[in-house]
Amino acid sequence: MCFGLICFYSYAQNPKTSLDFSKSAIFISFLTFCDLFAFVYWHPQWVIYLVPFMGLSFAFSENKNTYLLVMAVVAIAFLLCVFTYFPGNVDERLLNLGFFGRIFHFSFMNGAISKVLSSVVDGHT
């Protein structure tokens, strides 16, 4: 249904200039991918599909401060979702057990994020 609404919105668009056409094309593409990610079980690495549209939409944004604030909130929500639904996969363990952790022998937060989020998800405080 959402995809049908996006198609209707796309059909109803009548950009006057090539700049308006570019803005509309980027926005519609971004909406299409957001629609896809909203209704399927997705993997965090798929966000790479959204990054070009987010960057281009920032370039065309008239109020960059508001856009940055919204994107910061979205990034924090994205990280919380990833830490919650993919425990031990893409959290601080990625830094600790990865390339730089082995070279520089450091431990970032020592699993604290995973422990806190797993206790919240399990209902323990």
| Mean pLDDT across all amino acids | 80
Q: Quick one: overall form?
A: elongated
Strand content: under 5%
Question: Termini distance?
Answer: 39 Å
Q: Please tell me the total number of domains.
A: 2
Q: What is the helical fraction, as a range of percent?
A: 55-70%
User: How many individual helices?
Assistant: 7
Order of helices and strands: HHHHHHH
* Total count of strands: 0
Radius of gyration using CA atoms only: 19 Å
Structural class: mainly alpha
Low-pLDDT runs: none
Largest sheet entry: none
What does it look like?
With 125 residues, the protein is mainly alpha-helical. It folds into two domains: 48 residues, no CATH class; 65 residues, no CATH class. Helices cover 70% and strands 0% of the residues. It is built from seven helices and no strands. The N and C termini lie far apart (39 Å). The relative contact order is 0.07. The mean pLDDT is 80.
Outline the secondary-structure elements.
Blueprint: H1 2-12, H2 18-39, H3 51-60, H4 64-85, H5 92-96, H6 99-104, H7 112-122
Helix pairs in contact: 1-2, 2-3
Keywords:
0% strand, elongated, 125 residues, 70% helix, 2 domains, mainly alpha
Write a short abstract of this structure.
The protein folds into two domains: about 1-50, no CATH class; about 60-125, no CATH class. About 70% of the residues lie in helices and about 0% in strands. It is built from seven helices and no strands.
